[in-house]
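Check out one such.
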Amino acid sequence: MTLDLATLAQFLVRAKLKTYASDGAEVPANQVQRPGFKELVHREGDLEYRDSYTGFYRAPGQELVRVKEQPFWSMSYDGGMLPTYHGNLAFTKQTFAHLKRALSLVPISLPFRGPSFFREGSFTYTFEVHGDITDFYGLEAIHHDDIKVFQQRCMGGLILPKNLAQSL
């Protein structure tokens, strides 16, 4: 199973733009791999991207890329609206709309979440990431009128099997 990092990055960007960032279709509940989770899937040939998450105000999840049905890359994330905003559905929906617009600007150089900075109206999105596509961690936040309302952490990278010769 081989996949160069540039191809992986390009695939991740295309997959993210076709799924959560653009309100992509969810996998039907009776076909999800993790019951109780929402799942979004994008496939191109031997590549499959699956974003699986649960919850709303706080929504932990995982993105997974498979190559020929074998796990190759993953990213886990956890966080959401700060507790002050739990229960404020209208404001949370506005915040998530801003998040989706930021995620639609995912850079190919760091294809994990959104850009390092994105401002639109009274909302500001920031993402600080350390590492590269092989091994990384990051923190994203959304501020409304300079007050933090959303925060989420992520981490991930390549999945390396016991027999490295089969994966690289």
Notes: The mean pLDDT is 94. The first strand starts at residue 38 and ends at 44. The two ends are 7 Å apart (CA to CA). Strands lie at 38-44, 47-53, 61-67, 70-81, 117-120, 123-132, 135-144, 147-158.
